[in-house]
Amino acid sequence: MRIPLRDAVAVAVAVAAGVVAPFAAALVLLPLRTSVTHTNLALLLVVVVVAVSALGNRPAGALAALSAAAWFDFFHTEPYQSFHVQDRADVETAVLLLVVGLIVSQLAAYGRTMKRVAVTDATHLERLHRTTRLARSRTSSGDVVQRVRQELVDVLELRACRFEYGTLIGRPPRLDPDGTVQVDGWIWDLERQGWPEGEIELRAVVQGRYQGRFLLTPEPGSVPAPPEARLVAVDLAAQAAAALDEDAVSAGRRP
Description:
Layout: H1 5-28, H2 38-55, H3 58-76, H4 88-136, H5 141-156, E1 158-165, E2 174-175, E3 181-183, E4 186-187, H6 190-193, E5 200-206, E6 209-218, H7 227-250
Antiparallel strand pairs: 1-6, 2-3, 3-4, 5-6
Helix pairs in contact: 1-2, 1-3, 2-3, 2-4, 3-4, 4-5, 4-7, 5-7
């Protein structure tokens, strides 16, 4: 799978910051090394690690911790401009700087993950609520299908999505209710192989009654949506199926 260029650039910038920022901070602190205790200098470098961890990613935070410990040793412990440390207290300070920096980077990464999960869950919930409100507003099932098509493009980050009424022609890859994708009867390894080629079928079924199918076209080489997003897509398709089924009842096409 190809990583989007924007994401690759962001990762590269974060990693570069993890290496360069502690080095720059250690240089800036050089005039203070004879007037400020080594412990306080290490605490100031921890602030840099925290900043990189908060703004970057987990690898950047870990690199920042390693870089901070190395440049603290190089610039602020005797003998200066050497990675050799003579004083045991300085060794302990450098080790603690590294350990604290690594812990902080992990905590920052965990916090970002939890925030991202909370925001994503709230967005998915709002998608489902919007579609439910539309389906209950006595609008036509066609409007509901159109809304679901738009929501599927957004939630799965698709290039296109179309709907076929009541047809089951061919055997394209299929997105199942459990969020997995089947290709020729086998579960496709999305994490390792990415989206399969061509359109992917998502059936609109309610209480065992087939109403049609959405045909999903992912962006070439894009990273598949996470399992939570795929399950939301299945729920959206079910809402479209329910609207179509209700219209069929109203029109007398189903007893």
